[in-house]
């Protein structure tokens, strides 16, 4: 198991930024391990959720920004639900992922590619156009046969539209993206 080196300098600004953006007090975590025990993806993580919280308390910015775990988190909120101190751990994971994205640290490239394709779809259509999302993802990753077995089942049932459907209120969605870009988004 990887040990957190407390002798390294603590990045207090990193802790403050995560707390401010998440609205959470990370010092309330006393390492009970409920978040890790309840996480359905723990076996795929390089750093368990409880250790991400400990790393955050220790101000280990570089370690957390470079870990795979924050990108693999499905934000299912099992960790949040199980926390005896009512820490919104899933929100913290989202903030860490957002910060890593802004810092250009994306060890899980395919997850980032999927997120980018998803947001592009919403930006252009006001909602997700699934066929376009899948096409863009496959083109960007080269994974052309991904989920081909599902398409054979779904297409005859007309569960995937072949053309996008724009929504009423598309301008409101555009304003959200404009505000995000103004506030320092990508």
TrEMBL record:
GO molecular function: 4 iron, 4 sulfur cluster binding; metal ion binding; oxidoreductase activity
Entries under PANTHER family matching the protein: IRON-SULFUR-BINDING OXIDOREDUCTASE FADF-RELATED, IRON-SULFUR-BINDING OXIDOREDUCTASE FADF-RELATED-RELATED
Protein's name according to its UniProt entry: Succinate dehydrogenase/fumarate reductase iron-sulfur subunit
One GO location term (cellular component): plasma membrane
InterPro entries xrefs: 4Fe4S_Fe_S_CS (IPR017900), HdrC_iron-sulfur_subunit (IPR051460), Helical_ferredxn (IPR009051)
Keywords of this entry: 4Fe-4S, Iron, Iron-sulfur, Metal-binding, Oxidoreductase
Pfam families: Fer4_17
Protein's UniProt keywords contain Metal-binding: yes
Native species: Pseudodesulfovibrio hydrargyri
PROSITE patterns assigned: 4FE4S_FER_1
Biological classification of the source: Bacteria, Pseudomonadati, Thermodesulfobacteriota, Desulfovibrionia, Desulfovibrionales
Statement: the UniProt record of this protein carries the keyword Cell division: no
């Amino acid at each position: 198991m990887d040990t957190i080196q407390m002798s390294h300098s603590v990045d207090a600004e990193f802790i403050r930024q995560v707390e401010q953006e998440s609205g959470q007090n990370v010092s309330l975590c006393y390492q009970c391990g409920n978040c890790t025990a309840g996480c359905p993806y723990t076996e795929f993580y390089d750093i368990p959720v409880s250790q991400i919280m400990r790393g955050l308390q220790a101000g280990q910015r570089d370690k957390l920004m470079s870990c795979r775990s924050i990108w693999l988190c499905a934000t299912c909120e099992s960790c949040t639900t199980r926390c005896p101190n009512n820490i919104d751990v899933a929100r913290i994971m989202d903030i860490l992922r957002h910060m890593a994205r802004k810092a250009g640290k994306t060890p899980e490239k395919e997850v980032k590619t999927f997120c980018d394709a998803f947001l592009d779809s919403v930006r252009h259509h006001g909602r997700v156009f699934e066929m376009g999302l899948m096409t863009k993802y496959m083109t960007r990753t080269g994974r052309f046969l991904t989920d081909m077995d599902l398409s054979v089942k779904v297409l005859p049932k007309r569960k995937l539209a072949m053309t996008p459907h724009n929504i009423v209120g598309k301008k409101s969605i555009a304003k959200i993206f404009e505000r995000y870009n103004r506030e320092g988004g990508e």
